[in-house]
Amino acid sequence: MKDRRALRILPSVFFALIGCATPSGKPTGSEAAGCAAVLAEPALLREQAEVELEAKNYELAYRYLALIETLHPESRESAEVFPVAAALFQKAYFAHRYTQPDSVWLTSEPGFMFQWLARFFGNESPQPQAEALFVGMPYGIFRAFTEHAARRPDLSGWILRAEKDNGIIRAITAERTGSPGA
Asked: I need a labelling partner for 97 at 20 to 30 A (CA). Which of 59, 79, 88, 103 fits?
């Protein structure tokens, strides 16, 4: 049953996203209608990610979840799917770490995940999201995040501390330093 639903959803997502990617950057007419149908539905992207997860297409499932953050950053779904996206990112990171060191999973995707994590640095503690992203990862990725955070004044209200064991992050602590941006 889910396979049939996936076959029905996937073409609409694919063609609508293609319709969104016009040379001018601005779809018109039926392209705009198709684009709006997909872009207005983070739930549709989440459902497709779930279909891909069931099929064990983990990297594709991650891509659908990343699209939710890219297209609908303020949506409830974007916040809800972060832990799953973080777990899928970790899986892909480790799968490509030694075999493809120039893979996007090691070059650009960490930055995307840092940006997504940064959205949780507000009045509420980013502890659960930081744990989802960093626990179990090599300490080097946490160092890269601290360098990223040092360039972002909006993240200065929190300090993340990592406890590591043999180079692997075992625990993260988020501590409030004052008001964000202070």
From this structure: 79
- Residues 54, 60, 152, CA angle at the centre, nearest 5°? 120
The two tokens of residue 7 are 């076959």
Q: What is the pLDDT along the chain (182 residues), one digit of tens a residue?
A: 444 444 444 444 554 454 455 444 555 555 555 555 555 589 999 999 999 999 999 999 999 999 999 999 999 999 999 999 999 999 999 999 999 999 999 999 999 999 999 999 988 899 999 999 999 999 999 999 999 999 998 888 899 999 999 999 999 999 998 654 44
- Asked if residue 139 lies in contact with residue 123, where contact means CB atoms within 8 angstroms, the answer is no
The C-alpha angle with vertex 41 and arms to 154 and 70, in degrees rounded to 5, equals 30
Measured in whole angstroms, the distance separating CA 100 from the mean position of its chain's CA atoms is: 20
List all residues 6 or more positions away from 22 whose beta carbon is below 8 Å from its beta carbon: 28, 31
* Domain range list for the chain: 120-182
On whether the CB atoms of residues 150 and 143 are closer than 8 A, the answer is no
Contact 156, 181 (CB under 8 A): yes
163 bridge partner residues? 171
